[in-house]
Amino acid sequence: MTLNGSVAQQGGEQVKNRYEVKILTETGKECWLDVRNRIINVQGESAVLVTAFDITHYKQVREALYESQRTLSTLMSNLPGMVYRCRNDRDWTMEFISEGCFNLTGYYPADLIENQKISFHEIIYPDDREGVSNEVQAALQQNRPYQLEYRITTATGEHKWVEEQGCGIFSSTGELLALEGFITDITEQKRSDEELQLLETLTQAISEAPDFDTAIEVALRKVCQATRWDFGEAWIPSTDGSVLECSPAWYISPREKGSGEWGVGS
Questions:
Q1: CATH superfamily to which 80-186 belongs
Q2: Which of 14, 99, 200, 240 lies most in the core, judged by the most C-beta atoms within 10 Å?
Q3: In Å, how far are 111, 185, 191, 218 from 100, measured between CA atoms?
């Protein structure tokens, strides 16, 4: 028999007035009862009135709910990203964020919930904020899920690429209640994609170049543009291969010089 209960005072003595008890029926089945008692007066004498209710189903549902919540919590804590629920406002005000928030953004969930320290809007890279908002609003108007790729700035100032998948949560009357979704880090994937694209671009550009010097110039320009370098020079082996020599090719980014130039330096 298992007992869980509460205690009350009666005449200076402790009296258990409500408790849960697990019993075995005649058939060997386990059954939970909610047992309650109270002191009553019967013809001038004190007596105890005891009532019992079968709460087996309630206990099973409660235990199943607890197990479901525990499983969900374990699952979310092991996901390579963060699960969220937020409002559809300018700040994307967070109502819930999983523990993966810290590894992804460098901020604790409590920092973002209700914008306590920073809003998620502020974490999104400035150049990407408008695009994120436009895509989410378009998806909500069409009542469809959304999938986005954009950059964020972490608490340490690092820039990361993330992928977000989410949808609007609507009431039975069609009122938008919140946004729910999942955000994960795709920085390494983006870098790999960019490197592969650069390699393909270089291969094609070099194969189309009429001579070696032009191929070097094209390769230098493509590399600098892909890596966002402001300046670039190409060093190549000398004729006998004993040292590296600076080739005539050079590159200056648009930010550093008008329209941006590349070619043979003088």
A1: PAS domain (3.30.450.20)
A2: 99
A3: 13, 11, 22, 43
Q: Are 105 and 92 in contact (CB under 8 A)?
A: no
pLDDT tens digits, residue range 120-141?
A: 999 999 999 999 999 999 999 9
Residue 262: what pLDDT?
Answer: 45
Residue 109 CA to residue 87 CA, distance in Å, equals 15
* Domain map (residue ranges) of the chain: 28-74, 80-186, 191-252
**Percent of the chain clearing pLDDT 90 (strictly above):** 39
